[in-house]
Amino acid sequence: MAIGADKVRVMVTISETEKQQLEEISKLQNRNLSNLIGTIIKEYLNEQKADQK
Q1: Share of the chain above pLDDT 90, in %
Q2: How far apart are alpha carbons 39 and 52 in whole angstroms?
Q3: Cα–Cα distances in Å, from 20 out to 11, 16, 33?
Q4: Contact (CB, 8 A) for 22 and 33
């Protein structure tokens, strides 16, 4: 699968339980797992940026 020129691919290791929980959330939000994880990371980074102000 091709990714945009402004994107990079990373690999993470999580427990099977965490993966199952994330898959359940992604199904509820009509997202794929990768999109959900990307959104979670963006939200975390935005929170960290706001906390530094």
Answers
A1: 89
A2: 20
A3: 17, 6, 10
A4: yes
